[in-house]
Write a structure and sequence with these properties.
The protein is mainly beta. The chain is built from two helices and 20 strands.
Length: 294
């Protein structure tokens, strides 16, 4: 009997260290699934069967560079395969500027027109505080977010955790400006959105924790579904909401529409940062959508 007990104890002593090593390996593998950005940019790989995989933050920065040099990725699906930590290094939006209901991009604007599928991964520590780009006024930060400008695109399935995003027109953590686009299942948490009025005709407006502005074209609808913002702040001078700053439901009576459904906000505070100017401080709402236009 003593021999059996001794054998059992010895076996247990062998099993426990192995189990601890196995657990440690699992934890190490889990940590390895987060790629931290060092600020560098690498070229995005070529599409295979119309699919591009993004495995590092450097590649995501490469996507931004490519789009901002004129590649639209229309017809291409970009899939994120890893959680990313952008380490609060200054991020350049993927596309920037704005577009029209006639399906054309405005001057000095660059758009992502493909599908971006985050595959339920998380992007942490996004920071955009010094970006200058867009077409409204000289020096305008127009179309600001992880994606600055998307047109005819699909953006879906990811989370942004901790972000500081600043601009003066069309500002959101995930997307600054969207048109003819499907946006689905994007969550943001602990984001700080600031949209500043500097005195121009179209400044300080259209800001949301997830999306700054979304509208349709004469040919195509847009939609925002299943998006959530929590524990965040939005500060702007006009057209600001908890999830979406401004939603155009039917631009110029074209018949196509923009819809939103199943979008939620929890502890998202929207404030007016230019309350002394009565001419612009409209539609500052602690509601899912700041302004519905159309």
């Amino acid at each position: 009997m003593k021999n059996k007990i001794l054998s059992f104890v010895l076996a247990l002593c062998l099993i426990i260290p192995c189990a601890l090593v196995f657990t440690a390996c699992k934890d190490k593998d889990k940590k390895a699934t987060i790629d931290a950005w060092d600020g560098t940019v690498v070229t995005v790989s070529e599409a295979v069967n119309n699919v591009i995989t993004i495995e590092t933050a450097e590649e995501l920065a490469g996507l931004a560079k490519s789009v901002n040099e004129g590649t639209t990725y229309a017809g291409i699906t970009v899939k994120l395969t890893m959680d990313l930590d952008l380490k609060n290094k200054e991020w350049t939006p993927i596309g920037y500027g704005s577009s029209s209901v006639d399906d054309t991009l405005d001057t000095d604007s660059f758009a992502f027109k493909g599908t971006f599928d985050g595959q339920d991964h998380t992007i942490r520590n996004l920071k955009i505080t010094t970006f200058v780009g867009g077409s409204i006024t000289e020096g305008a930060a127009t179309g600001v977010g992880l994606f600055g400008l998307v047109h005819g695109a699909t953006i879906k399935n990811f989370e942004i955790e901790r972000a500081e995003v600043r601009g003066n027109h069309y500002v959101g953590a995930a997307v600054g400006f969207a048109r003819a686009t499907v946006i689905d299942d994007i969550d943001v948490e602990n984001v700080e959105i600031t949209c500043t009025f500097r005195g121009g005709n179209e400044e300080g407006d259209k800001a949301g924790a997830v999306i700054g502005y979304i509208g349709n074209t004469k040919a195509s609808n847009s939609s925002v579904t299943n998006c959530e913002a929590e524990d965040s702040t939005v500060s702007a001078a006009r057209d600001a909401g908890q999830v979406i700053g401004c939603q155009s439901t039917d631009d110029n009576g074209t018949g196509t529409v923009t819809t939103q459904s199943n979008n939620e906000a929890d502890n998202v505070i929207v404030t007016d940062n230019n309350s002394n100017n009565d001419n612009i401080n409209d539609n500052i709402r602690n509601e899912v959508v700041g302004r519905v236009r159309g």
